[in-house]
Amino acid sequence: MSLEGLKIESFSLGPLGTNAYLLSRPEENRAIIIDPGMNPKPLMKRIEGMQVEAILLTHAHFDHIGGVDEIRKLKGCPVYLHDAEAEWLTNPKYNGSAKWPELGEPIVTDPAEYALDEGQVLKLLDLEIKVKHTPGHSPGSVSFLIGPHLFGGDVLFRLSVGRTDLPGGRGEDLMDSIHDKLFVLPDETIVYPGHGARTTIGYEKENNPYV
């Protein structure tokens, strides 16, 4: 695995300011996308001319999947999602888009092509992407570890944690995920959350009031 030449860009998308991440090798016009959210026009413009190898989903809440259908159809790329949320892409009740109609239309897309699971290692973009199952915010939440970079969705934020009051959420599971899966990583690990600013594992261990 080589991180040399890897570019990481973030896009704050949709009414909830959901972070979508574009990981690319610009010299080769190849990329993968993590959590393409609602109103994805800035991201769509950025990937013009790029070969998108995959869409990786940390989980399938509506604000993280709003751009899946458009990008998948445009680029012909597969979607990866944990099996615990296999039905969420096809069902607005599960993904939450039916609950908040004021934020947008119900979101329905085809199922994911590939299932994610704990300990899996994906080989995309000449990277080794380690999958950690980190439930609590939602039952199928996963975090993606690429060298010192952790893409954790809505599990751990800068000075906060993910909410657990949505269907399938559970506070005890969230704390287990944070302490047993994330806080065992090196302190210098950079956390790229589903909302808000980047942080590090070490900073959150020292300063996060919720953990």
Radius of gyration: 16 Å
Number of domain units: 1
Distance between the termini: 32 Å
CATH C-level class: Alpha Beta
CATH architecture: 4-Layer Sandwich
Major beta sheet, specifics? 6 strands, mixed
Return the structural class.
Answer: alpha/beta
What's the number of helices? 6
- CATH fold type: Metallo-beta-lactamase, Chain A
Spatial ordering of strands, largest sheet: 1-2-3-4-5-6
CATH-wise, what's the superfamily?
Answer: Ribonuclease Z/Hydroxyacylglutathione hydrolase-like
Unreliable parts = none
Could you please describe the fold and organization of this structure?
It comes from Paenibacillus konkukensis. Pfam families: Lactamase_B. Counteracts the endogenous Pycsar antiviral defense system. Phosphodiesterase that enables metal-dependent hydrolysis of host cyclic nucleotide Pycsar defense signals such as cCMP and cUMP. GO terms for molecular function: hydrolase activity. Its cofactor is Zn(2+). This protein is of the alpha/beta class. It has one domain: Ribonuclease Z/Hydroxyacylglutathione hydrolase-like (Metallo-beta-lactamase, Chain A), CATH 3.60.15.10. Helices cover 19% and strands 30% of the residues. It contains 6 helices and 14 strands. The chain has helices at residues 41-46, 62-65, 68-75, 92-95, 171-182, 201-207; strands at 7-13, 18-25, 30-34, 51-56, 79-82, 114-116, 121-124, 127-133, 142-146, 149-153, 156-157, 160-161, 190-193, 199-200. The strands form 3 sheets. It has a 6-stranded mixed sheet with strand order 1-2-3-4-5-6, covered by helices on one side. Strands 7-8-9-10-13-14 form a 6-stranded mixed sheet. Strands 11-12 form a two-stranded antiparallel ribbon. A hairpin with a 4-residue loop joins strand 1 (7-13) and strand 2 (18-25). The chain is globular and about 40 Å long.
